[in-house]
Amino acid sequence: MRSFLLTFILAVGAVASLGATSDYWGDYTWSYEDEPTAAYYEKHGKEPPQVAAPVTTVKVEKSYVVKLECLGCPFRVRTTPETWQEPPQDNSLLLNFTIDNDARTLLVNGKRIAPLAPAPLNIYAYQTPANLSADIMQKMVDMQMLDESWNVGTKYGTFALSYEHTIAPTAERFVSLLQFNITNIDIKYGQYPGGAALEQPEQKFVQLTLSRANAEEGLKIKQIELVGRDSRIKAAKLPCGRDAPVYRSIFRSTEWDYYGQQGTWMRTWHVVAWQTGDWLEAKIPIFILIVICAGACFLVRWRAALMRAKEMRDETEDAEAALLEPEEIKEKDKVEEVVEKLEGEDEEPDDALPEATKPSLLD
Ligand SMILES: *[C@@H]1O[C@H](CO)[C@@H](O)[C@H](O)[C@H]1NC(C)=O
Ligand SMILES: *[C@@H]1O[C@H](CO)[C@@H](O)[C@H](O)[C@H]1NC(C)=O
Ligand SMILES: *[C@@H]1O[C@H](CO)[C@@H](O)[C@H](O)[C@H]1NC(C)=O
After folding, report:
1. For residue 126, which of 43, 167, 179, 68 has the smallest C-alpha distance?
2. Residue of the nearest CA to atom 14 in ligand 1?
3. pLDDT value at position 7?
4. What is the torsion angle, in degrees rounded to the nearest 10, for the CA atoms of residue 52, residue 53, residue 55 and residue 56?
5. How far is Cα 152 from Cα 34, in angstroms, rounded to an integer?
6. Which tens digits make up the pLDDT trace of 99-145?
7. Whole-structure pTM value
8. Residue nearest (by alpha carbon) to ligand 3 atom 14
9. Ligand nearest to the CA of 227
10. Pairing, β 111-114 against β 124-129
11. Whose CA is nearest to atom 5 of ligand 1?
């Protein structure tokens, strides 16, 4: 049973959210309240709602939401505290395949996968019950739950995806095939880390046929389907008879963190650089204090030295005055002027100085 507290927090989150498609919190209750069970429908003599299709068309050739069954995956229950359901109910991952506004790139859950953005390409996907109803799916689409701007807390947990990404040209001009094969789902951080490998033989993945006949039309999703694990792309034949290239990249989300890929020098360097930065940042107030203290000490000592020099000079000058040559007397005079200027405005004016400290040579 989902706790009342969580519902309350999520409701408050819904009200407080900005940039969502509705200002009225009641429009979001579907995203955090429990859906009625099959037993409920039976008890009330109602037909259970239709289950959402594996592929929902949002905009033909441009945007599709895939509900991919995640066979044998653990199920996150977002109560407070969060738990893993035992045994986990059948569940699915939601993937939003959309051609970006520039009509040149394909995004999945907001991240660019064609052309593939450089790693680390952390893609996150919501997990829903496998029997998510078509009605709720339509609400997700209408209110753009799979958009990066969505910031209402929901009962649906997310996972980081590890995947195999394969893209290859086909025999048809300007048409290529893209396979997005999820290999693992993970929660890397936080209190409840965990995940699973998608290893079951019946596990499916998403295959897209993309075309880009000309710049005007832009990139199009000609076909999107769920295919079996072993439907590997066969390289097309080039006109010269050779095989066309097949580009495959593998991304393992747990091998990457904020700093880079585990076990690489680049990551070590980033960690060192960031930690040094953090250390310095944490010490900034102390640094400022040290600088202020050092500055104050220097000023005090400088002034003291200046005073001492002046006192010593005054003492010796009386004795030496008679012996000095006229030129030297003039030079001494200048030095004295400078010294007095350096001592600054806060010094009492000459006239107010006690008789003994007045330059005796001027007498
Ligand atoms: C959906 O699946 C869950 C878990 O198997 C089940 O408890 C629930 O009754 C199902 N809901 C409907 C409407 O069939
Ligand atoms: C799918 O992603 C696109 C691009 O990020 C976004 O504009 C759109 O709103 C998303 N669709 C849904 C249903 O959230
Ligand atoms: C998809 O990934 C699974 C698990 O890593 C692998 O066994 C399978 O061969 C892959 N299929 C394709 C077509 O890449």
Report:
1. 68
2. 38
3. 55
4. -50
5. 16
6. 999 999 999 999 999 998 887 889 999 999 999 999 999 999 999 99
7. 0.72
8. 232
9. 3
10. unpaired
11. 89
